[in-house]
């Protein structure tokens, strides 16, 4: 790619999965072309992009999509989600105008969306290709919600109109129906793989000589799970890693990391013997890449849950833990079954970040117009 324009990523701040996989793609872009200028528009926490400080990156914080609203990692607030989506959709034309003004001084070659409808409206207004990246789209998520609240029925079609403006969808594994996109290319799993040796991570955590199984408890980028043991907790004879103080009843030697801890999540997953989590793309992908067994629980009202669980059963060494046992910290039995019942891992390609990076750079080179561009 010759001297060209900036790549602009519009990234959902819903959870951490969208941000971490876009960060993986950006890392690969810089490995291929270190001087490539990248701008990220997102409401995701800035620390998710901290490992990218070595490259020419600008992160402009702002709400680009409401996603869904959740009381915690396992509980969806459907009425609040629909209300937020309705309000966002009503002001979408004004936000598109504001985004174009914001980007007018940039030489934009390509807009990548994971996966806000706004991204493709902005790309259309700038007359540059809009490339989608994802394993589900918000029209598919909200289709089920609108079925029970038909007063919001125009929302789904509005999102579909935006998605139809995309020039291409780079569709990830673990995906739902995404036929709304006019052109689709399937790519391998996009995931940030461990950059640090497992032993080095364990040593840094003070676990170098730990003989018990190490279990990471991680629920992504939402408010803490509502743990509350009404009976004596029974986590089992394991060594746990958690974040903050949100999990009561664990042994005193639990490693409790602060929110601003220096570790990459994928390094923690690779250093653990097992993970307790919710079934979401980010952590599931990291477990698949590291071949770290995991326990997952149910998630209320999440349409993507069934898709992910189906693929987990087919590809991963994983087990289920009931919601009540999870919240009451009765983990011993499920962990013992997980460790005593090995299941074969599928042979999964995990080079999707490189595949996506090369495809984006090629598309940008093909479409870059250094003179007379609208942007």
Explain briefly what this protein structure is:
By secondary structure, this protein is of the alpha/beta class. The chain has 2 domains: 6-191 and 351-367, Glycogen Phosphorylase B (Rossmann fold); 198-340, Glycogen Phosphorylase B (Rossmann fold, 3-Layer(aba) Sandwich), CATH 3.40.50.2000. The protein has helices spanning 17-32, 78-90, 92-103, 117-126, 138-148, 153-163, 198-204, 265-271, 281-290, 304-315, 323-327, 332-340, 352-367; strands spanning 6-11, 38-42, 57-61, 70-72, 75-76, 108-114, 130-134, 168-171, 184-186, 214-217, 239-243, 255-257, 274-277, 294-296, 318-320.
CATH topology (level 3) name of the largest domain: Rossmann fold
Report the CATH C-level class of the largest domain.
Alpha Beta
Tally of DSSP β-strands: 15
What is the rounded Rg?
A: 21 Å
Mean pLDDT: 90
Low-confidence stretches: 369-375
CATH superfamily of the largest domain: Glycogen Phosphorylase B
Estimate the global geometry from the Cα principal axes.
globular
**SSE-based structural type:** alpha/beta
Characteristics:
Rossmann fold; 7-stranded parallel beta sheet; 17% strand; alpha/beta; 375 residues; 37% helix; disordered C terminus; 6-stranded parallel beta sheet; 2 domains
Chart the SSEs and their pairings.
Elements: E1 6-11, H1 17-32, E2 38-42, E3 57-61, E4 70-72, E5 75-76, H2 78-90, H3 92-103, E6 108-114, H4 117-126, E7 130-134, H5 138-148, H6 153-163, E8 168-171, E9 184-186, H7 198-204, E10 214-217, E11 239-243, E12 255-257, H8 265-271, E13 274-277, H9 281-290, E14 294-296, H10 304-315, E15 318-320, H11 323-327, H12 332-340, H13 352-367
Parallel strand pairs: 1-2, 1-6, 2-3, 6-7, 7-8, 8-9, 10-11, 10-13, 11-12, 13-14, 14-15
Antiparallel strand pairs: 4-5
């Amino acid at each position: 790619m010759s001297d060209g324009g900036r790549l602009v990523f519009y990234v959902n701040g819903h959870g951490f999965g969208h941000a971490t996989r876009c960060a993986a793609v950006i890392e690969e872009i810089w490995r291929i072309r270190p001087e490539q200028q990248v701008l990220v528009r997102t409401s995701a926490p800035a620390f998710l992009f901290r490992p990218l400080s070595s490259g020419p990156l600008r992160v402009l914080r702002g709400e680009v999509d409401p996603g869904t609203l959740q009381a915690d990692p396992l509980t969806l607030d459907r009425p609040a989600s629909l209300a937020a989506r309705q309000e966002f959709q009503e002001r979408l034309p004004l936000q598109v105008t504001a985004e174009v003004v914001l980007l007018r001084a940039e030489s934009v070659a390509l807009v990548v969306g994971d996966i806000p409808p706004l991204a493709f409206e902005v790309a259309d207004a700038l007359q540059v290709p809009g490339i989608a990246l994802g394993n589900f789209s918000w029209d598919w998520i909200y289709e089920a919600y609108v079925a029970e609240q038909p007063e919001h029925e125009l929302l789904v079609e509005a999102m579909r109109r935006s998605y139809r403006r995309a020039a291409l969808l780079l569709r990830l594994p673990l995906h739902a129906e995404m036929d709304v996109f006019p052109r689709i290319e399937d790519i391998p799993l996009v995931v940030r793989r461990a950059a640090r040796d497992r032993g080095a991570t364990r040593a840094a955590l003070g676990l170098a000589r730990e003989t018990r199984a190490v279990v990471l408890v991680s629920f992504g980028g939402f408010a803490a799970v509502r743990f509350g043991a009404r009976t004596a907790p029974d986590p089992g004879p394991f060594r746990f890693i958690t974040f903050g103080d949100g999990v009561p009843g664990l042994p005193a030697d639990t490693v409790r990391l602060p929110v601003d801890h220096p570790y990459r999540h994928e390094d923690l997953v690779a250093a653990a013997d097992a993970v307790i989590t919710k079934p979401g793309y980010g952590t599931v992908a990291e477990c698949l890449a590291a071949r770290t067994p995991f326990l997952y629980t149910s998630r209320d009202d999440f349409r993507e849950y069934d898709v992910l669980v189906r693929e987990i059963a087919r590809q991963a060494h994983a087990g289920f833990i009931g919601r009540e046992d999870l919240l009451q910290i009765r983990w011993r039995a499920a962990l013992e079954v997980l460790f005593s019942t090995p299941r074969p891992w599928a042979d999964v390609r995990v080079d999707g970040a490189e595949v996506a990076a090369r495809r984006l750079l090629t598309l940008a080179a093909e479409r870059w117009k250094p003179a007379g561009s609208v942007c």
